[in-house]
Design a protein that fits this description.
single chain; mainly alpha; 76% helix; globular
């Protein structure tokens, strides 16, 4: 009960953030209490740090890359192109925006898609004077696709990185399993969003009111470097994965390279337009402290009783067959993520799967089901992921407020069919992957 109490209080402070208290400091305070009370030992610090350091610094480097490209106008350029392709018809624009969000989530992680694309799309729609209901429909679509399309690559979500590191899943193997599964998730997301929002998106807009995409580019050097750098980065992931090179080292090298281009380091800074100081201040450094602190608290909770109970549930699910094991695991961790946040839920699921007495094929199904549940499950509630809380905060700053009740009404309707279809796709596809 002590371990549970420490976790609950820590989570409350992480979500509440009184007086702007960073999520990292709240998590570290919870970890300090857990250490002081013996819920975890000092030897656990090294164990947990070994689990989270690569994932955490990879995530920070990806966000730095995203912020630099955003400062250079890369995402605004892409969104303006998509708006023109929509041809003035909201019903044509809607799937294009969803697919753009899916592409950004795959490469720049779910946080990049939700926090960078949403304000850009919203600004374009407001410039076009569309109805508030239409703007809200596109906003909701951007927020949901950011998570439901964050399955395909290890780097597409912090959940994916932690899970792949925990179970030593190579980058190529992960992509071979999850890229096809992600296509199902994206297609199902588009289907349910269309069914829910089709009346609100049936609008016309004036294409001629859009500025030329080229005008959105604020740093030509960074823009020209973007596509070659991203292509080389993706290639490097596949090449270095089998060699055991940390993903953080590869992503960090790409981030430093882009920083050198943006800062014109070889030219003494002449001609630079991207403010690297602003970018570095905006990077999620608090997530480093959060990962270590919160995972220590969850590790203690797992030691106390949660891992034992969760692994017993998974063992029972496995006894019912691979289909029940896959779907049951995915929905169980989705519910857990929606009430305790997906980052703690990811570790709980991983520890439980590791401890469960199940066949190797079932274990692999559960591994990926844990990822799917923790990527998609947070959409049930606003507290399911920190990205969603930040997304709601960004929207409020733009005058677009979504109450928790309104959010949950949408989340509880849209998430279950997407989650179910994605888990079934995993169950069907994994046996074919060699």
């Amino acid at each position: 009960m002590l371990a549970l109490a420490i976790f609950v209080v820590t989570l409350i402070f992480v979500i509440w953030q009184p007086r702007g208290l960073g999520i990292g400091w709240s998590a570290l305070a919870g970890a300090a209490v857990a250490l002081a009370t013996g819920v975890v030992g000092w030897h656990d610090v090294g164990t947990v740090w070994g689990l989270v350091w690569d994932a955490t610094f990879t995530f920070v480097a990806l966000i730095v890359i995203s912020l630099i490209l955003d400062e250079a106008g890369f995402f605004a350029w892409a969104a303006l192109h998509v708006a023109r392709w929509g041809g003035g018809d909201g019903r044509r624009l809607f799937p294009l925006i969803v697919l753009l969000g899916a592409a950004i989530a795959a490469v720049f992680a779910n946080d990049g898609a939700a926090l960078l694309l949403t304000p850009i799309v919203l600004a374009i729609l407001l410039r076009l004077n569309v109805a508030p209901a239409c703007a809200m429909a596109f906003t909701i679509a951007c927020g949901f696709i950011a998570d439901t399309a964050s399955l395909p690559l290890v780097v597409s979500n912090l959940v994916n990185i932690v899970s792949a590191q925990f179970f030593a899943v190579p980058f190529g193997r992960y992509a071979a399993v999850m890229v096809p599964v992600n296509l199902v998730s994206v297609a199902m997301t588009l289907l349910v969003l269309w069914a829910w929002l089709r009346r609100d998106i049936a609008v016309r807009y004036a294409v001629e009111a859009l500025e030329p995409p080229r005008h959105a580019i604020r740093d030509e050097a960074v823009f020209r470097a973007a596509f070659p750098l991203l292509g080389l980065l993706l290639l490097a992931y596949f090449v270095t994965g089998p060699l055991g090179v940390p993903i953080a080292a590869v992503t960090g090298a790409a981030a430093v390279t882009l920083m050198a281009v943006a800062g014109r380091w070889g030219r003494g800074g002449r001609g630079a337009t991207v403010q690297l100081g602003k970018v570095l201040r905006g990077a999620p450094w608090q997530i480093v402290l959060f990962s270590l602190g919160m995972y220590l608290v969850v590790y203690g909770l797992g030691h106390a009783w949660l891992t034992r109970e969760a692994s017993a549930v998974l063992t029972w699910l496995a006894a019912q067959g691979t289909f029940v094991a896959t779907v049951g695991t995915g929905f169980a961790v989705a519910v857990l993520a929606s009430v305790m946040n997906n980052m703690p839920a990811t570790l709980v699921g991983a520890l439980a799967i590791d401890a469960a007495q199940v066949p190797a094929h079932t274990r692999e199904l559960m591994l990926y089901a844990n990822v799917i549940g923790n990527d998609l499950g947070p959409k049930f509630t606003p507290i399911g992921s920190l990205a969603t809380l930040l997304w709601l905060h960004v929207l409020a700053g733009k005058g677009q407020r979504i109450g928790w009740g309104e959010y949950m009404k949408v989340g509880l309707v849209l998430t279950p069919p997407v989650l179910l279809a994605t888990l079934v796709a995993l169950w069907l596809w994994l046996p074919w992957v060699r």
